[in-house]
Each structure stands twice: as C-alpha cells, then as structure tokens.
Design a protein that fits this description.
Elements: H1 2-34, E1 51-53, E2 56-61, E3 73-78, E4 84-89, E5 98-102, E6 106-112, E7 119-125, E8 131-136, E9 148-150, E10 153-159, E11 166-172, E12 177-184, E13 195-197, E14 200-207, E15 210-217, E16 223-227, E17 232-239, E18 242-250, E19 253-263, E20 268-273, E21 276-281
Antiparallel strand pairs: 1-2, 2-3, 3-4, 5-6, 6-7, 7-8, 9-10, 10-11, 11-12, 13-14, 14-15, 15-16, 17-18, 18-19, 19-20, 20-21
Length: 287
C-alpha cells in the first residue's frame, strides 16, 4: 500500500512540475512575442540620437549634401506616412546637432559646432512650436552640455563664466526659471552627465579623494550624499532606489573601471563582475 501511495505522489509531483514548466515556457514565449523589435528605416545617410513619441520621430539629420559629416537640421518625421517637417536648422557652418529628448509636452536638443567649442541647449514647447535657448557654452573652454529632460524640467552641468566653477543647473520649462542646484568639486567627461528619475536629480562628484553620489529631491529641495566605492564615479543613473554607475580608480586610466549599483535602502554596493556579485558595505548617507 505504501509503495502505491509513494508512486502516486511521485507521479503527481512529476505532473505538477510538468505543468509548471509548461506555464513558465508559455509565459516566456508571450514575453518574447511582446518584446519583438521593430526596425524603422530613417531615410537619411547621417543622423544623431533619434527619439520617438507616439508616431512621431524627432531626429537631427544631415541636409547639407556637400558635407556628409554635418548633422545640421532637426526634423519631425512621421513613421507611418513618411511626412517630415523641419523644426530647426543649425546656426553653425559645421554642425553636430545631438542629445535629442522628447516627452508629450517638450522637445530638447543640443546645437553644436562640429569641434564642440560652441554648444547650446534648446527647447521647444510642442503645442506652440516656440523655441528658446536654455544655456550656451563659453567657446574659450571645451566642455560638454548634456541635458536631461524630465517632465517640465531640464538639468545639466555647466562651466560658468569664471572658467573655473562648474554648476549643476535645473530649469523649469513652464516658469522659465533656472537655478543652480550645486557647485561641483571635480569635473570631467565621466561626470558631465546628470540623470533624473522619481523627482530626484542625480550627479556624481569627488572631494578629498572620495567619490560621491548626490541626489537632489526636486520637490523638497533637499540633498543627500552617498559614498561611492571608488574615487571617480561616473555615468550614473537612478532607478527604484538604486544608483547604477561606472566607477574609476583613475580618471585618466579608464581601463580601471567597475560597473555596479548602490542599494540606497541597505547602503550596500554590488559589483557586476564575471557573473558574480561582490558586496561592499557603504556608510550611511551624509546629511
């Protein structure tokens, strides 16, 4: 009798496992079908940073056939019917327009000379088509304008007129007000970028040999600093309470890099390395 019961239980386990496996396999098939990629052909030889909102693509392209390397015109391109509209033409003879971002209400981009010494951040209110300049670089210095669009806000890092101080800027597109959120101690290519998510503005910095992640709450206007695992954290993004970044021991030697994330809730840093995870405890945030 016991043998029959054991055999019955074993068969039930096998059947249930089979059903579960089939359900998992079916779910994976559904996910794969939902994640099918769509190839959109852009009928231009040279372009930068296309973005899509609904059926409309916004993309800087090359219309100057005499110079195939120019990206000199921002267009709105309808994916369904191929209609296109010119929104903006670069003011530079040799241009490299880039950094296009869009949401339901706003469009932003960077108009840049090809050598990078002249750059300006521009925004367009989509309902009115009104274009305005948010910031410009000083051509005496080679710096990067890399704006981040979030709802009605645009953030970026900028070298101010003294040629020494770099500030984190936050612009409200509705009120047309720009504020300086912070001054940076250390500035280079790796941390010239900012990121905004969940009403939090993120950037990285280095002070006295210690790297930091800095989160600025847009609503409360409060700032929290978190220690990074290496001296030079960069290319940071924020999502679901975690800060992802590439971290460097030496900002002049990019082979000494490490990719990982800081879990703010646990103050633990996790490194992605050869399919294994290394955990380094980080001190509590500095208020």
């Amino acid at each position: 009798m016991d043998k029959h019961i054991n055999l019955f239980i074993a068969l039930m386990v096998i059947l249930l496992a089979g059903c579960v496996n089939k359900e998992v396999e079916t779910e994976k098939i559904k996910e794969a079908e939902e994640m099918k990629e769509t190839v959109i052909e852009i009928p231009f030889a040279n372009y930068n940073h296309p973005v899509i909102q609904g059926d409309e693509m916004f993309v800087p392209i090359n219309r100057n056939t005499s110079d195939s390397f120019d990206v000199d015109t921002l267009i709105q391109y309808n994916i369904d019917n191929g209609d296109r509209e010119v929104l903006y033409e670069s003011e530079y003879d040799e241009s490299s327009m880039q950094a296009t971002q869009v949401n339901e209400d706003w469009l932003i981009w960077v108009d840049s000379s090809s050598d990078g010494y002249y750059e300006k951040i521009l925004s367009m209110e989509r309902s009115s088509g009104k274009i305005q300049t948010l910031a410009e670089t000083n051509p005496k210095y080679l710096t990067i304008l890399s704006p981040e669009l979030y709802h009605e806000y645009v953030a970026w890092t900028q070298l101010v007129d003294d040629g020494i101080t770099v500030e984190v800027k936050l612009h409200n597109l509705i009120t047309n007000e720009t504020i300086s959120v912070a001054k940076m101690n250390d500035y280079s290519l790796y941390n010239a970028f900012v990121h905004i998510e969940d009403n939090k503005l993120l950037w990285t910095d280095t002070e006295d040999g210690q790297g930091y992640y800095i989160l600025y709450d847009i609503e409360s206007k409060s700032t929290e600093n978190y220690k990074a695992p290496k001296t030079f954290p960069g290319y940071a993004t924020y999502s679901n309470g975690k800060i992802f970044s590439i971290n460097f021991d030496d900002d002049r030697n990019w082979t000494s890099q490490e990719f990982g994330y800081l879990d703010i809730a646990t103050n633990e840093y996790h490194t992605f390395e050869h399919e294994s995870t290394l955990i380094i405890l980080i001190h509590s945030p500095i208020k």
